[in-house]
Amino acid sequence: MIELEHLSKVFDASSKNIKAVNDVSLKIEKGDVYGIIGLSGAGKSTLVRCINFLEKPTGGKVVFDGIDLGTLPHKELLKQRQKMSMIFQNFNLLSQRTALKNVCYPLEIIGTPKKEAQEKAKKLLDTVGLSDRIYSYPAQLSGGQKQRVAIARALATDPQVLLCDEATSALDPNTTRAILSLLKKINTEMGVTIIVITHEMKVVEQICNKVAVIENGKIVEQGYVKEIFMSPSSDIAKELILPKYENANKTLSQRILRIAFDGRSSVEPLIANLILECRVVVNIMGADMKDINGVAYGQMLLQLPEDDTAVNRIKAYLDKKDVKYEEV
Amino acid sequence: MIEALDNILGTGMTVMYLNSIATTVKITLTSTFLAYLIGFPLGIILYGTASESIFPNKYVNAVTGFIVNILRSIPFVILLVMTQPLASVIIGTRLGDNAFIFHLVIAAAPFVARMIESSLKEVDAGVIEAAQSMGSNNFQIITKVVIPEAKPSLIIGSAIAITTILGYTPMTYLIAGGGLGEMAVRYGLYKFDEQTMYISSILLIILVQILQETLNHIAKSSDKRIRNK
Questions:
Q1: Is the full-model pTM beyond 0.95?
Q2: Which residues of A touch B220 (CB under 8 A)?
Q3: Which domain holds residue A306?
Q4: I need a labelling partner for B56 at 20 to 30 A (CA). Which of A101, A144, A174, B15 fits?
Q5: CA quadruple A244, A248, A251, A253: dihedral positive or negative?
Q6: What top-level class would CATH report for the domain B2-222?
Q7: Contacts of B144 in chain A (CB under 8 A)
């Protein structure tokens, strides 16, 4: 659906070349909810703007549905953008237009008859759960409601892709969850491919199936969310995913085992069984369990007994249960 | 009615005041309208061709900005004298209200252009980016996004422009035009009739207040960013 090939964006800022996006290659398949996660300043917002050419890349290609966007004349590019909508952190609604007229805007610019546009806009506002606020102005709506209008507006041209640039970063946790489940619904029910730019792991956990981790403009890790969650390899991914127990590690000289759970092993009481079967005492230092797309993932840090044979029994038990672990 | 007022103001003065009001309103509105006709497109050019704007163009921006700045920095009285020959070519006369409107438009258009530019600059860049992401072309961004979003600010700008233009109208006494300002100058300066000077000045003040308050009210009531109305 979207392929980024060696994409780069260099900004000239007073003779210093800043590589905001540095040789990024990604493949986004139809139906994906693809997360791009990184700390602020990592280049993720520039990257997403390169996808729809709001920022013109300085190197590499964006291939959308088989078309190399870089080769298109400006007029054709504008047409392609209509198949690739975008929502923003600050909603960016037209403040002097009602919710309904905001949703009508993208239809107006492609010349849809007014009545038809309004009907479609009403339907979309109903889809996002705002049918009772269609004549409200943005100033009269809450943050979550504004983002719903923005989503309805983004869907007006029946896009194949929805680009979300920190779409939930200005919202509180409850509203974030509601907006994310709306996006998930749009993905599954309308078949819209979604690209999610975020700095929050919980956003990726809740809706993405694939994720790319970006640092200093480079993709340092990419793959399926559950795999990267199970065993993050890059430092930045570890920092974003792993719970922070560094302090605990320093103060304790004991051996610590990190156990990674996948959906299968967390159904049974693994730790309780481990204690009973191996006849050992372990101390749970910390745990971070998550529910991703209905299956639980997570990890746990166990403080091990000093006795080597007991440790070996534990490891043998975990091997038998096919649970991934590492001593840290 | 007129006779009763004449008893207070002096014989024939009431009609003179009324005519002067009409002349001032005519000069002000016509000049403002024409100044906007020229200044509005100039303002859009100044806004749109700026770097980081919608259709950046260094040269067009520099040239337009230069002309606007030059015209704005010439004091109005001097500009009025400088554009005398031009007025006789274009208007056919150097004297009277129409010639004065011509001078006023030349002086006000660059000012209006800067007012428009600054109002348009207030529009949130994010909203423009959103419109671009939806595939809007530049014309649509200007007409459907930037101008409607800037509308309240544009109206407030027009209140400032119209009162500034009104403030220039007394200069018309230099080229034998008419109006309240000219009346105040003529009676105050040459006829030592302070009563008439003060009355015409007060009428001018009232006119400014009416124009300003009306436009500010329209600006406020048209602004949808205000929550509780």
A1: no
A2: none
A3: 242-327
A4: A101
A5: negative
A6: mainly alpha
A7: 105, 108-109
